[in-house]
Amino acid sequence: MPTMAADRMFILISCAAIIVTGLVAESGWGAFCSTEAKETVRPSLTEGSKHPRITQPRMTTIKLLACDFEVFGIVQGVFFRKYTQKKASSLGLRGWCMNTADGTVKGQLEGEEKPFNEMKHWLQTKGSPSSRIDKTVFNVPKEITSYTFKDFSIRR
Fold this sequence. Notes:
Order of helices and strands: HHEEEHEEHEEE
Helix content: 25-40%
Strand content: 25-35%
Distance between the termini: 86 Å
Structural class: alpha+beta
Largest sheet: 6 strands, mixed
Shape: rod-shaped
Number of strands: 8
């Protein structure tokens, strides 16, 4: 019987240590804990369970998208490229744009999904203050693993 008591005591102390480590790591009191412990030890209760389980941190993947675009309407001589560069840069997007001989502005965009979609909407509906956007055509966005451009530039 003394062995069972010792086993129960070990389990109780182990569970308490796991819970305290998780609380310290999540509360920010972990100045004396290693960074590794704060990042990997997170007790959590599964639904319907009273016992904590250790979970690994979730890996968040950043989805990068790229596509070509062309904007039709009154988009030349109205600072459309400059406003496009300013907007794309403010969103952290990369790529380029340029005037075409047909009177359109075409270019390429690449960046994270949310700002990428915000820029697509901007190119369809806003543009520069003096522009008039009749139509914007995008090719199907493709997922990329790394950036091709270092910033958003204007090509001539």
